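Notebook, student rotation project (T.W.).
Task set for the rotation: take a protein with a known small-molecule partner, predict the structure of the complex, and write up what can be learned from the model alone. Partner molecule chosen: magnesium ion. Sequence and SMILES entered below by T.W., checked by me.
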Amino acid sequence: MKIRSLGLHSLSIPFKVSFRHSSAERTATQSVLAIAETESGELGLGEGCPREYVTGEDVDSCMRLFAAWETELIGEINTLADLERWNRERENQIDENPAAWCAIELALLDVLAKESSQSVESAMGLPELTGPFQYSAVLGDSSVETLEAQVHQYVGLGFTNFKVKVSGDPAIDNRKFAIVTGAAPEARIRLDANNLWRDADAALSYLESIECELFAMEEPLPAMEFDGLLQIARARSLPIILDESFLNRSHFTHISKEPEAFIINLRISKMGGLVRSLQIASEAAEKSIPLIVGAQVGETSILTRAAMTVGNAAGDHVLAREGAFGTLLLERDIVEKPLTFGSMGRLDVSQLLDRNVHGWQMNYDLQNIRSAGSEDLHSLQLPPDSGRL
Ligand SMILES: [Mg+2]
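Predicted structure of the complex:
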C-alpha cells in the first residue's frame, strides 16, 4: 500500500441534547477525523475524541502530533507490520497523545484492509463480527424528570443493564435508582461517579446511604488513586470500574495484585487505538480482569465500529458494552447507516454493515463529513473512482 495523502481534521457535530459530564458540558462533538487516501484510490476514516479531563488532549494537541508525524507516516506505513512497529517504537509519545493516534491508526487500518480486500478483522487475523451486539443503557447526570423519561424509553426498548451517572447527593441519587428499579426490577445497575469524591472515606459514606444493589462503581476518586480505590472495593466487596484511571498498559501494575477488585473500561480513543486496545484486552484476559467496552459521548459510527472489533475479539471477558448511540445523540452521522442500537439495546451487524465494503464495512456520507468538519473539509474533493467516502 502506498499512501497518497493523510489528513487530520476537527469534527464538530451538534448533539440533539446538550450532554453533561461532571467535568464538562458540551453541545457538539469535539473530535478529530483522520482521512487516509491511497495511490490506488482507497479511502479510510479514523476518529479520536480528545478529552482534557481524560487524557489531557485537545483538538490542537492532536493537530500538533499529526503535523510532526505526517510526512514519516506517509513514507513509512505500507503494511500492518509497519503500523504495529510504529505503535511499539512510539509507545511513549502515543501514551501522551492517545486520541490523536487513535484517529490516525483507525484510518490507516481502514485503508490497509481495503487494499487487501478484507474487513479490518480479517486483515488483523481476528474473527469476523457476528451476532447482535448488546449495549447498556447510560443515564447521564440530568434532572430526575429527564432521567425518568429516559428510563421509560430504555425499559420500553427492553434494556436491563444500566449505568447511572450520579450527582453525589444521596437523596437525589436514591430517587433516580428507585426510578430504575421500579421500572426494571431485574436491572443490573452500575454507578459512574466521574471522579466525584476526594477520598475513600467520602465515597464509602455516600455508599452507606445508597439504597440500591450495585454491581460495580466507576471512578469514585480522583484518577489513579489506586490505594483508595482498593480500600473501597474491599470495604464493600464492590468491583471498581477504571475509566480515567486506566489509559494504557502501564496501569496494569497498579491492579495486578488484586485483579478481582477491578474492571477495566476500555475505550479505544483513550487507549490510543485498536492495536493497543487489543493488547490490553488480551492482557486483561490473562489476568482475569473483566472489561466493559466503553464509548466516548458523541462518537460517530467510526469509533463505535472500532470498539466492536475489540469487543468481538474479547468475547466473554466483556461484561457490558456502552455506546452505539449514533443519531440518537448526534444530529447526523458520517456514515450512510449509523451504528445505532435498536430494541433490547441490540445492534444487528448484518443489518447495518455492508459485507461488500471492505475495511470498516461502512459507506461514508461525504455530505455530512463536509458539513461537520473543519473549514478545510468543506471543499473536500475526492477522486471520481473512489466511490463513496
Ligand atoms: Mg466513565
